[in-house]
Amino acid sequence: MAFLVFEGLDGSGKSTLIKNLTNHLSNQQLTVTVTREPGGTTVGEELREMLLKKQEQPPCAKTELLIYEAIRAQHVEYKIKPALQSGAWVLCDRFTASSVAFQSGGREISMEETQWLNHFATSGLQPDFTVLLDIRYKDAQARMGNANRAEKDRIESEGAAFHNRVRDSYLQQAEGQKNWLVLDATQSEQTLTQQLIEALTAQGFLD
Question: Could you give all domains of the chain from N- to C-terminal order, each with its CATH number?
């Protein structure tokens, strides 16, 4: 059993790495639950759609953060905790570090307030290990094929300055943390998967 979180900018390759690790764990006869934020539950997915869609009057920064935290509280209570209690590995695409990165870093909301809300929403639950797929914003955009702006959700449509602040926040959070693994997301998926498996083995999660 382990609670692993994958963080990074959109286009960093989180979904691919989660898929590859899921296959590796399943081949070892381990039970795996894959989930995501925002989302993860019926209520969470409904709020995700409202949160990310472009609209004439988008949520203000504080409202946005509170919606994310509401999604997270539901997610922890009805998806993450039950899976962990059953003995499953939980692989989550984004968690509390995303709120620090996007809302505190990107939106420039108080770090103290963001961390308090994270703790409140999770009842103190923290990942056992966090994987940061680090990539420059312009490289992430190139990887995504410079999708038409109309096809991007509300957060993806933010400019380079916003996403650069998000990346900086991620790197600051990871600095000096033994339970974080920072990977160069420009490497091949095979290399990234191997580096992750080696790190999990070194940390004692895998034999």
Answer: 3-202 (3.40.50.300)
